[in-house]
């Protein structure tokens, strides 16, 4: 369950919007809202853009984007992926509605408190982590991962394919070139023979005549 | 900042027992809320509403947000000992988004309970449930009741035995019967929940106990005795006041602190709020039609020529901005008593003593409150005479007072003879409690009118009265007269207006022409007395009279719509008696006339 959400400007930690939590029993959150303020204080431009901090039965998830910190306190059992999807959705809508005004130097604290309506609506949608909508969202995330993975494999496959082709080509080249070498050798040999055959023949006949004349 | 600015939250607890439905309360409430939906402050679109109907069980209404195709559903919880919320969402819904769901719910509200036969009213458990619903955010709970809460915590017994209207039991009748109302009020104040009470019963409704809730949570009690939607004046009065009340741009989650220069300390605070930690006043919601008094005590000798007082209110506006409003006042000091008397303001003194008297009446009884007021006046006169009168004054010397305070005895007499404090065995305790509430919260201008009614002579009014002034466009009013029956002429037409009620007094010898002009009837016998609406006729006189009445009814900074009663001098004696109690300079049953009062004062201080 998402218990509380706050949106704070990054550079001067000015709170811009927050959920006015209307679920029951918020008294136990007092300690965690103090921790949340501590976390916000420590964040700056070089911090990790997305992180989860565990604390007792709750987790603090935060997202830094567009010069803003979106931080939420959720129960430990709430899926992280869903929490970050929630923060991403808040980010998109907030920048859409108020993006051009967040850098004004004279903003009041909680100047965009009427973003609270959207936070409540979105929180309601994400609240039940077992609803099919959320499962679909999770699935689509997973599918996304597999699609990307598939894409890589295809690439890999094509790469392997061309490699094979290369090997084939090179082995065929080798075969061809050895064939040609043999052929060339053969031709050389033939040429040599043709070149030297009459000489060798004449000398052979001369040697035979000499042998027959002198040695009869 | 401890938490983000609170949104405006209204929870309506509507009594749907058989009394409420029969008197038309449920139908009128639903219709009025429906018509006022646009007027409820909603600039930041965060305003939230919830509806709970109460009879012998609690009926919650879940309004699903727009993408859902379903209609609002009713959930009934009969467990009154441990009231719980049946669903976690959709009970408290944003007005901007769920507007159509809310409208369809309001349209069906009366029909749903049209056949209700339940006579029980479980308002105590309903209040606890509403507190659970909005305790985390804070907001305003508006209770509309037409019967006595008679089950669960907060159960009240009818205790207005006519015999016990004698002096002794009077005091206990003005205090709360059940400690639930005080302890729950403190709890609500802590979670920034404020409660308003709208009470409509024709029988005893123990306003004294019920009004504790608004008193300590900075709400307001509205009392409509014997209300019935069948009378159009009643319906108009309630609809107007309720609509104005809902459209007030109240501030939320407010605290007030008053500081002053060295040597000055804030002693006591009067008004509808809860005093936290001796000088911090907590207002879960800060209305715009009440006034507050701070009693300042001088601890050390002040030697500086000026002292400064500063009041700061930290609040959230109804559109979600957290602000501090600061008011600073510097007052000159003097060591001369005559300067103090010369700079005293009689209206401020009257307001202050009205608040003190109201508080005293609740804590120690009506006689003590009357004695306080009378005693203080005598003290002021005596000090004036002793310290400031230089010439020798014998016992026969006239009563003397400084010029700026010359009406103070009249105002204090008006306060003593006011229905809230008056010595009388016939005033029902509900009426008294409601009157004491008003004495404790009305702003100064309306308080003075409440204790000293405006009295106009209509048959002899000047030409400018009742007609629109060419320059300012305002309707002119006739001059006000002293509240004495010697002004009443036999043939005259008079108007008495105290801000909460208006009386149109017709003398017994009124000329037929007058009756024809104002009512269109041939003779006085045909004029109906009691709560009526004046017909608007073509005659010029009727136009003027109606214009004056309308002008008196439009009040800036007040939500009240006075009822008009027609009183004939030869008509209903009880109505006539009631109207003549407003003529305070006269002697009344157990009350003194103005001359007697002054004579007694003079004897007292010599």
TrEMBL record, chain A:
Q: Which residues cross the membrane?
A: 196-214
Example GO biological process term? intracellular protein transport
- Tell whether Ligase is among the UniProt keywords: no
**Keyword line:** Coiled coil, Endoplasmic reticulum, Golgi apparatus, Membrane, Protein transport, Transmembrane, Transmembrane helix, Transport
According to its UniProt record, where is this protein located? Endoplasmic reticulum membrane; Golgi apparatus membrane
The main place the protein resides is endoplasmic reticulum
Q: Which GO terms describe its cellular component?
A: endoplasmic reticulum membrane; ER to Golgi transport vesicle membrane; Golgi membrane; SNARE complex
Bilayer topology term: Single-pass type IV membrane protein
Q: Write down the PROSITE patterns for this protein, in alphabetical order.
A: LONGIN, V_SNARE
Cell wall biogenesis/degradation as a keyword of this entry, yes or no, is no
V-SNARE coiled-coil homology domain residues are 134-194
Where in this chain does the record put each Longin domain? 6-119
Describe the family membership recorded for this protein in Swiss-Prot or TrEMBL: Belongs to the synaptobrevin family.
What is the protein name stated in its UniProt record?
Answer: Protein transport protein SEC22
Q: Which organism is the protein's source?
A: Lipomyces starkeyi NRRL Y-11557
From TrEMBL, chain B:
Q: Supply the SUPFAM superfamilies for this chain.
A: beta-sandwich domain of Sec23/24 (SSF81995), C-terminal, gelsolin-like domain of Sec23/24 (SSF82754), Helical domain of Sec23/24 (SSF81811), vWA-like (SSF53300)
In which compartments does the protein localize? Endoplasmic reticulum membrane; Golgi apparatus membrane
GO-annotated molecular function: SNARE binding; zinc ion binding
Every Sec23/Sec24 beta-sandwich domain range: 252-334
Q: Where is the Gelsolin-like domain?
A: 477-548
Q: Show where the Sec23/Sec24 helical domain sits.
A: 345-448
* Keywords from the UniProt entry: Endoplasmic reticulum, ER-Golgi transport, Golgi apparatus, Membrane, Transport
Record's keyword annotation contains Cell cycle: no
InterPro entries named among the record's database cross-references: ADF-H/Gelsolin-like_dom_sf, Beta-sandwich_Sec23_24, Gelsolin-like_dom, Gelsolin-like_dom_sf, Sec23/24_helical_dom, Sec23/24_helical_dom_sf, Sec23/24_trunk_dom, SEC23_SEC24_subfamily
Q: Which Gene Ontology cellular-component terms appear in the entry?
A: cis-Golgi network; COPII vesicle coat; endoplasmic reticulum exit site; endoplasmic reticulum membrane; equatorial cell cortex; Golgi membrane
A single GO BP: COPII-coated vesicle cargo loading
**Which Pfam families does the entry mention?**
Gelsolin, Sec23_BS, Sec23_helical, Sec23_trunk
Which branch of life, at top level? Answer: Eukaryota
All copies of the Sec23/Sec24 trunk domain together span 5-245
Main location, first listed in the record: endoplasmic reticulum
Q: What is this protein called?
A: Protein transport protein SEC24
């Amino acid at each position: 369950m998402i218990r509380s959400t706050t949106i704070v400007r990054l550079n001067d930690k000015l709170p811009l919007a927050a959920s006015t939590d209307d679920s029951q029993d918020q008294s136990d959150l007092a300690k965690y809202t103090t921790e949340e303020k501590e976390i916000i204080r420590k964040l700056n431009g070089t911090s990790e853009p997305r992180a989860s901090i565990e604390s007792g039965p709750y987790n603090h998830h935060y997202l830094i984007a567009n010069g803003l910190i979106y931080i939420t306190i959720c129960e430990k059992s709430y899926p992280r992926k869903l929490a970050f999807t929630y923060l991403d959705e808040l980010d998109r809508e907030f920048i859409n509605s108020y993006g051009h005004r967040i850098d004004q130097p004279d903003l009041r604290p909680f100047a965009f408190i009427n973003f609270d309506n959207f936070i409540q609506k979105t929180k309601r949608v994400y609240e039940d982590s077992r609803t099919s909508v959320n499962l679909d969202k999770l699935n689509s995330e997973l599918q996304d991962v597999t699609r990307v993975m598939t894409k890589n494999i295809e690439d890999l496959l094509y790469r392997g394919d061309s490699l094979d082709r290369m090997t084939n080509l090179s082995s065929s080249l080798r075969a061809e070139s050895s064939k040609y070498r043999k052929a060339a050798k053969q031709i050389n040999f033939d040429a040599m023979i043709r070149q030297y055959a009459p000489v060798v023949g004449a000398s052979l006949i001369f040697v035979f005549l000499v042998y027959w004349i002198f040695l009869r | 900042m401890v938490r983000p600015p609170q949104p405006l939250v209204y929870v309506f607890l509507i009594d749907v027992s058989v009394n409420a439905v029969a008197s038309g309360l449920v139908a009128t409430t639903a219709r009025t809320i429906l018509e006022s939906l646009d007027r409820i402050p909603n600039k930041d679109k965060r305003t939230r509403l919830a509806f709970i109907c109460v009879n012998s069980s609690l009926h919650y209404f879940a309004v699903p947000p727009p993408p859902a195709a379903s209609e609002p559903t009713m959930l009934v919880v009969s467990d009154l000992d441990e009231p719980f919320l049946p669903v976690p969402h959709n009970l408290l819904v944003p007005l901007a988004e769920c507007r159509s769901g809310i409208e369809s719910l309001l349209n069906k509200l009366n029909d749903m309970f049209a056949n209700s036969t339940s006579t029980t009213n479980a308002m105590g458990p309903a209040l606890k449930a509403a507190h659970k619903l909005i305790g985390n955010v804070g907001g305003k709970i508006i209770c509309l009741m037409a019967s006595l809460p008679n089950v669960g915590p907060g159960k009240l017994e009818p205790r207005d035995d006519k015999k016990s209207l004698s002096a002794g039991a009077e005091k206990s009748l003005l205090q709360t019967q059940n400690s639930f109302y005080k302890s729950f009020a403190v709890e609500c104040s802590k979670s920034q929940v404020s409660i308003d009470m709208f009470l409509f019963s024709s029988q005893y409704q123990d306003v004294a106990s019920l009004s504790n809730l608004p008193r300590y949570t900075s709400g307001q009690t509205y009392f409509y005795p014997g209300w019935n939607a069948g009378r159009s004046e009643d319906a108009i009065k309630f609809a107007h006041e309720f609509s104005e009340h809902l459209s007030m741009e109240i501030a939320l989650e407010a605290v007030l602190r008053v500081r002053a220069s060295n040597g000055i300390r804030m002693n006591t605070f009067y008004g509808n709020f809860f005093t936290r930690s001796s000088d911090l006043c907590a207002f879960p919601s800060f209305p715009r039609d009440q006034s507050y008094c701070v009693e300042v005590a001088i601890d050390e000798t002040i030697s500086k020529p000026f002292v400064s007082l500063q009041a700061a209110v930290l609040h959230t506006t109804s559109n979600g901005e957290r602000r501090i409003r600061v008011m600073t006042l510097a007052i000159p000091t003097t060591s001369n008593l005559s300067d103090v008397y010369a700079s005293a303001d009689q209206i401020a003194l009257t307001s202050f003593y009205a608040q003190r008297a109201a508080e005293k009446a609740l804590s120690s009884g009506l006689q003590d409150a009357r004695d306080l007021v009378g005693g203080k006046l005598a003290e002021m006169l005596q000090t004036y005479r002793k310290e400031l009168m230089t010439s020798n004054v014998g016992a026969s010397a006239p009563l003397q007072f400084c010029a700026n305070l010359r009406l103070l005895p009249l105002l204090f007499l008006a306060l003593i003879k006011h229905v809230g404090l008056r010595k009388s065995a016939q005033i029902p305790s509900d009426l008294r409690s409601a009157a004491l509430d008003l004495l404790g919260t009305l702003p100064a201008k309306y308080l003075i009118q409440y204790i000293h009614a405006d009295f106009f002579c209509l048959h002899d009014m000047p030409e400018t009265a009742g007609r629109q002034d060419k320059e300012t466009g305002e309707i002119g009013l006739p001059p006000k007269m002293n509240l004495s029956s010697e002004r009443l002429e036999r043939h005259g037409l008079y108007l008495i207006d105290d801000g909460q009620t208006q009386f149109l007094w017709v003398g017994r010898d009124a000329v037929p022409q007058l009756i024809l002009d104002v009512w269109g009837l041939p003779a006085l016998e045909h004029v109906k007395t009691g709560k009526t609406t004046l017909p608007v006729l073509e005659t010029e006189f009727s136009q003027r009279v109606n214009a004056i009445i309308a002008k008196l009814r439009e009040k800036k900074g007040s939500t009240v719509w006075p009822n008009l009663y027609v009183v004939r001098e030869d008509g209903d004696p009880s109505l006539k008696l009631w109207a003549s109690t407003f003529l305070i300079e006269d002697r009344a049953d157990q009350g003194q006339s103005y001359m007697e009062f002054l004579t007694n004062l003079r004897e007292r201080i010599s």
